[in-house]
Design goal:
The complex is a heterodimer of chains A (217) and B (260).
Chain A: H1 2-14, H2 24-40, H3 45-56, H4 59-75, H5 85-104, H6 106-109, H7 137-146, H8 149-160, H9 165-172, H10 176-200
Helix pairs in contact in A: 3-4, 3-5, 3-8, 4-5, 5-9, 7-10, 8-10, 9-10
Chain B: H1 3-14, H2 20-32, H3 34-50, H4 61-70, H5 80-132, E1 139-140, H6 144-151, E2 171-179, E3 182-191, E4 195-203, E5 215-217, E6 220-227, E7 230-236, H7 240-253
Antiparallel strand pairs in B: 1-2, 2-3, 3-4, 4-7, 5-6, 6-7
Helix pairs in contact in B: 1-2, 1-3, 2-3
Classes of the chains: A mainly alpha (217), B alpha+beta (260).
Chain lengths: 217, 260
Amino acid sequence: MFFCEAREYIRLATGLTYQTQLTVDDSLDRMDKQTQFEATILPHLDAAYNLARWLTRNEHDAEDVAQDAFVRAFKFFGGFRGENGRSWLLSIVRNTCYNWLEKNRRKELGTVFDEKIHVIEDESASPEAALSKRFDAEMVRQAMEDLPVEFREVLVLREMEDMSYKEIASIAGIPMGTVMSRLARGRKLMQQSLAQREAANPEGQRRVDPQQSGSRL
Amino acid sequence: MNCTEANDLKHAYVDGELDAMHCMELEEHLKSCPNCTLAKSNLENLRSAIRLDEQYFRAPTRLQRQIRSALRFDEEPAGPVASWLQQFWFKFAAVSLVTALLAWLVALQLNIRSSTDRLTDEIASAHYRSLMAEHLMDVASSDKHTVKPWFTGRVDFGVPVVDLTDHGYPLIGGRLDYIQDRSVAALVYKRNQKHVINLFIWPESNDKAETQRPASYRGFNLVQWCAAGMNFWAVSDLNRGELSEFAQLIKEQTPAAPKP
């Protein structure tokens, strides 16, 4: 009884939980795992946060989701086979975000764009309108945030992380053809949205090139 | 290449995903088609607007700390082998400490008890030896003026010698004895011609109040007290009442400040 109590006190004094009282081998594995995780996954914190921030559209939720994603990443780190650490991490962040959206923003996911139903209109038929060469950053941010999440996602990965179609396809779990059509559709929506915003706010903070003021819509 | 084909390929072209042959074909078409050229430059403008650094959200510095702490990366700076050893040594040290503490307490208890016991044992043994080895006295005299000077030079203190012949405890002599690693004076008295009383005297540096510790040991009675910077032990086979009376008489007649 004395030794039981003593052990309890020792445990409390050292702040060690039974959970962390691992065997030497387990501890070595953990140390190894931690070192590798710190070298290959942790440096992509900014990318993880940026994606989470764009998908949740909220700083606080982005932090929670990113942290949750890292905890899951460390848990499943055994399945990481040394390929691109950033892609591997971002696919976990992306899934964590979608789980979070499903739980907290269900209606945002309700409008998933289906390329088979929505046939993109033939743009080539109408003459291309000249758009501003430089957009106001705040306006671009708002336009991006107003995009349906599946377009926002591919645009962030393509433009901000400079990922190839193949990498985006693997992270988002969609075929490459869908990546291409979503990128095309997303860009078209962005151009329309920006043109609308510029038309609605002609005296705004935007910097309009005077020679290219004939934007439509 | 016509405009419809060019429109389909422009995204792959600006994304750098178009193969060399289609690139050449598209570029050829753009040279002769201002509408498609405008579409391409609109696309490039949009891309650079999204790629602006302002649109990239960097993680706040606290997030890395939060994640490291959620992963328990910062809890065990020592390696696991070290932490295992640390745990082992911690337990070992804790158990050792408790054991040592208990042992020390027990030893302390035993020591406190036995320091008195050991002295009592020594006194009784000295008394017993004096009776059996015919070494009761080094100086045989009932005259305190003979006995007292005899000690001078033999012990490093003045021995207070008291004659109690008038009270029925005649002084018969004195000798040197050895108690607690030092020479002590032993005065010998008799009672009724049969009972020998040994009175051991040595200086007591710790001049505490007189504390009588009457005790019985191996059939002898012992009376101890401190007075005038001296430690007195009277031991005899006399009964306790008479020995106490003897002690009382010695105490009364011992000069308050002994001569050095």
